[in-house]
Write a structure and sequence with these properties.
Blueprint (H helix, E strand, L loop, with lengths): L1 H14 L1 H4 L16 E2 L10 H5 L12 E6 L7 E4 L5 E4 L3 E4 L5 H14 L7 E7 L4 E6 L5 E4 L4 E2 H7 L7 E12 L2 E7 L1 H5 L7 E2 L4 E6 L1 H12 L4 H8 L1
Parallel strand pairs: 1-11, 7-13
Antiparallel strand pairs: 2-3, 2-6, 4-5, 7-8, 9-12, 10-11, 10-13
Helix pairs in contact: 1-8, 7-8
Length: about 240
């Protein structure tokens, strides 16, 4: 009798999962009021150059960025440098310089001051960004290690989730959303991770500043919790979930 009551209770909970996951109001905002544009195609368009610099007046140097430092009239001091993990660089006669958070012009001024202290007359230093390494994507939701991860080379959805140590046991594989800003507009696309893994769809490419959110499955969560309470219901629960 107790077993039958538990089965009925679990079936009732599963039938209400869709309603519970729809939010508190259950109503979508009017199209004109949406903060995010839903992509109608299979993938999001690539971001524009302005999307990477929107809201920022100047670029600030970060860890692993590659820099080209030119000293006018002193070619022996001109060189390519890469900031270390702490955002520091080493320059002749100046020593270690903390470049983190500085703009190229601010770093130029810092190096010039160091050269003056080393008795170099009227140094003129120019710093240019040769390669930006401080690019990141955010992986959130039902993954093993949510966080912010660097983009190195070409990054795909599968690679990003793998970088976050894969999905959790409660993940809903057909509810993976990628948020991106394109042309100043926030956009989102929904992906089915299981179908991508099977090769039914192309693994979409990701770009810096993308946000990936893996949804959770209330039914799977209830299934897991019920197994911990009543292991003998395993067969019945699997039948209900399928």
């Amino acid at each position: 009798m107790l077993r039958n009551l538990l089965i009925i209770w679990i079936a009732f909970l599963l039938s209400g999962c869709a309603a519970l996951s729809g939010g508190s109001s259950g109503k979508a905002p009017p199209p004109g009021e949406r903060a995010v544009t839903i992509s109608q195609g299979m993938s999001l368009p690539e971001p524009q150059l302005s999307d990477f610099t929107a809201g920022e007046r100047l670029y600030h140097i970060g860890p692993f960025d590659k820099l080209m430092v030119d000293v006018f009239g002193l070619p022996e001091f001109t060189r390519e440098l890469q900031a270390d993990a702490a955002g520091k660089i080493a320059f002749p006669l100046v020593g270690t310089v903390d470049a983190t958070g500085k703009t190229p012009s601010e770093l130029s001024a810092t190096i010039e001051q160091g050269l003056r202290r080393a008795h170099v007359r009227n140094p003129e230093v120019t710093v240019n960004i040769k390669e930006v390494a401080s690019k990141f994507v955010t992986v959130d939701g039902e993954v093993q290690q949510p966080g912010v991860y660097p983009v190195t080379g070409r990054m795909s959805l599968i690679k990003a989730i793998a970088t976050a140590r894969g999905v959790s046991e409660d993940a809903k594989l057909d509810d993976v959303v990628v948020f991106r800003t394109v042309g100043g507009k926030k956009m989102a696309a929904l992906y089915n991770l299981k179908s991508i893994r099977k090769g039914y769809y192309e693994d979409p490419e990701l770009f810096a500043n993308d946000v990936i959110v893996v949804g959770d499955s209330p039914a799977r969560r209830i299934f897991r919790d019920a197994l911990q309470i009543v292991p003998t219901l395993t067969y019945v629960l699997v039948a209900l979930l399928n």
